[in-house]
């Protein structure tokens, strides 16, 4: 009974040569791989310090931030970014709703169909909005339309998965209670089913709206318009004080949207 623990203790106190060399060798291999990766991305101390010097000069030229007489133009671009995020989120939710219904095991119980459908959604979930934007800009041209479609296509598979899980987690007891009162199928759906899934879905959509407002700014920098495009233009002509003003305006808008969305989600939960 005590032989095994004694052998184990002996192995711990007196490890074999292979065990002693295993961790140092693994650490050495890891360091070599990390060094090769750093060389591959040109992450050298000289290059890094050169970048820090330029960042310092850029930050100095950002002070004080200035609208450059383009305040209302920036507000319009900000509104365009918000519209891009809002419309993209609504389109994504509309696309995700039927997909979520099909993806719920309580609606489609066939395991093979469910597995194939989830893997199909996974294929699209792996493509970020930026990639969709680059593809769709070549289709629709520069402007917010490509950004709206990119956000919708990128978000729809994610929301579909969340919607499917919301449907699967519906509690049958409220539904049975409404049904036992002699309600019609439509009333059962309205008063037993919808109150359980709508707050969850609305909360998820609000959460994605927050993310899409940030993503829309990035998409604007690759040609989808909005505040991202204005920021990219200012940086391109080294107008850093105006760029700083746009960044501050954008940060304030993101904070405002996050706060409003968080409060709404608290009320829905």
TrEMBL record:
InterPro entries, alphabetized: MetI-like, MetI-like_sf, PhnE/PtxC
Membrane topology: Multi-pass membrane protein
UniProt KW keywords: Membrane, Transmembrane, Transmembrane helix, Transport
Domain ABC transmembrane type-1: 78-261
Localization in the cell: Cell membrane
Domain of life: Bacteria
Positions in coiled-coil regions: none
Record field: transmembrane: 21-39, 82-108, 129-154, 242-260
Record has Membrane as a keyword: yes
Pfam families xref list: BPD_transp_1 (PF00528)
Keyword ATP-binding: no
Family the entry assigns: Belongs to the binding-protein-dependent transport system permease family.
Protein name per the record: Phosphonate transport system permease protein
Taxonomic source organism: Phenylobacterium koreense
Taxon lineage: Bacteria, Pseudomonadati, Pseudomonadota, Alphaproteobacteria, Caulobacterales
């Amino acid at each position: 009974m005590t032989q095994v623990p004694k052998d184990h203790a002996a192995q711990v106190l007196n490890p074999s040569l292979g065990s002693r060399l295993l961790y140092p060798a693994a650490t050495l291999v890891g360091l070599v791989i990390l060094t090769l990766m750093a060389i591959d991305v040109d992450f050298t101390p000289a290059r890094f310090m050169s970048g820090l010097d330029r960042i310092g000069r850029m930050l100095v030229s950002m002070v004080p931030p200035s609208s450059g007489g383009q305040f209302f133009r920036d507000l319009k671009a900000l509104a365009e970014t918000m519209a891009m995020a809002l419309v993209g989120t609504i389109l994504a939710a509309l696309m995700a709703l039927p997909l979520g219904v099909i993806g719920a095991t309580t609606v489609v119980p066939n395991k093979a169909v469910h597995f194939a459908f989830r893997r199909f959604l996974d294929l699209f979930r792996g493509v970020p909005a930026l990639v969709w934007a680059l593809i769709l800009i070549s289709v629709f041209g520069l402007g917010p339309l490509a950004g709206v479609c990119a956000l919708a296509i990128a978000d729809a598979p994610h929301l579909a998965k969340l919607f499917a899980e919301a449907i699967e987690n519906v509690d049958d007891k409220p539904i049975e209670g409404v049904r036992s009162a002699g309600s019609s199928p439509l009333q059962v759906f309205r008063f037993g089913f919808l109150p359980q899934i709508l707050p969850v879905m609305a909360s998820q959509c609000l959460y994605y709206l927050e993310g899409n407002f940030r993503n829309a700014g990035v998409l604007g920098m690759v040609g989808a318009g909005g505040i991202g495009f204005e920021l990219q233009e200012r940086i391109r002509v080294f107008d850093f004080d105006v760029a700083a003003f746009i960044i501050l305006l954008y940060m304030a808008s993101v904070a405002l949207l996050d706060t409003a969305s968080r409060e709404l989600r608290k009320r829905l939960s």
